[in-house]
Amino acid sequence: MNTPTPPPVIELTNVTKRYKDTKAVDGVTLRIDGGKIYGLLGRNGAGKTTLMSILTAQDPETSGDVRVFGQHPYENDAVLSRMCFIRESQKYPEDFTPAQAFKAAALFFRNWDQDFADRLAEEFTLPLKRRIKKLSRGQLSAVGVIIGLAARAELTFFDEPYLGLDAVARQIFYDRLVEDYSRHPRTIVLSSHLIDEVANLLEHVLLIDHGRIILDDDAENIRGSAATVTGEESKVAEFTAGRKVLHQDRLGSLASVTLEARLGAADRAKAADLGLELSPVSLQQLVVRKTMTAPAGSAGVEAPAATDPSELEVAP
Amino acid sequence: MNRAVSVARMQLINKWTFLGIPALIIAASFALTYAIWLIVPNNVETRYSGASQAVVWYFLALGIQSLTYTFPFSQAMSVSRRTFYIGTTGLFAVVALAVSLLYFVLGRIEVATNGWGLNGQLYFLGWAADSPAAVQIMFNFLVMLALYMTGFWFATVYKRWRATGMLVVWILIAVVLVGLMALAGWQGWWPQVGAWFADQTPLSVSGWTALFCAVLGVGSYLTLRRATP
Fold first, then answer.
1. How far is A81 from chain B (nearest CA, A)?
2. Rounded mean pLDDT of A238-260?
């Protein structure tokens, strides 16, 4: 080892993936140092799966520079063998049983923990000897979740892993994920729609929209980065003047405005004077508000570092 | 290299599809042929059977299945396309070689037992009898490998370009074949073509088949390199 610090787990520079006339990933520049649970959030078709496919070399990028563990992952077994990415619609060999799929995973993932896989299968009540093509949607998701967890890859991606899983099974997944992660620290990227459910797991949030990263911050920072102000309309207007507004609702003379702002003690005192109520904004609310304001172009969104004229045409 | 061996082991996790079925085909084709020879007695002249070809053709299916069933899964197992290709085609080359050796041994037994006691010819390659044993084994091996690679390459083309790819490939093949035939007819080359075919020896046929395998092998690899699961 010549370098004292290892390269970041993921480093993307201006990465684009083009399918005919749409850009699934559009000039993404991103650096992930690793060792955390990252949430990759965004709407359907925002580019989450494409981004993960590029990182795991399942789908090559059209342009830009992709580095995983400091190297380009495409056709690179040294890098690939340190990652695990089970797709939402993962295909398994015809006639394989879950037990056989786990046997295959044991061949390829050097940290594979068979006992852990067996325990998880029991908790998910997964029939190990039934053909995978005969499993229900939830059981199929469980196979992917178990491989992703028991592989203990240094960089693990979960792509909407809960499809068809009931609330209990999802809770088991979240619990085991956090438990195992604390015992075997690694980098986990979890893409999800159910933001409220995963909000507490996430240490860092990446929000992708129309193929671009529009939010990249620590979950802790994000929690304090917005607030909702509720009260009489004119007072609310006085308070919010000159601030970034993410969303507003009106009901009669009452207004409720979501601000993207870090409120300090002075702000809180002022709000109290005006008789306004301040409430925190959940991660899900913030994601929804940010995503809805994003395509409009200005409000609350920082322009990406590398801008090019073609970005105006990405709206579907 | 270790991971290529792991790919081969992954292909064999479900032994039925890739080993059980070929073994069953070999056993059934022999049993059925033997039964027919028993039912229709005739000890005067040698009775030929093409039943031993059954498993050879199955290599076409093996080529298609080994790509279609396991390539998307191998991607989830974080295996590069190159490693998947080496492990998979390497495994089936070994299987083809094993079947060729088995057929060679069965052919010797056939000769020694006067055609299984029934004057039959199922495994012995009469037309290649004068060639060295290695050429006889090589011929069967290369034919199986060529069929395997054909199936593998077609499955890869389908994986990468779907129905459009299939359509384009078949049209291209048809255009090339028709073009060659038109050229031969127009230039009056048919007698030479016929003579060329008549001149082929077991060794030269093996050589051409090997060349065909190499072209398919390179084509498959280049097609697979940019395929997505």
1. 6
2. 92
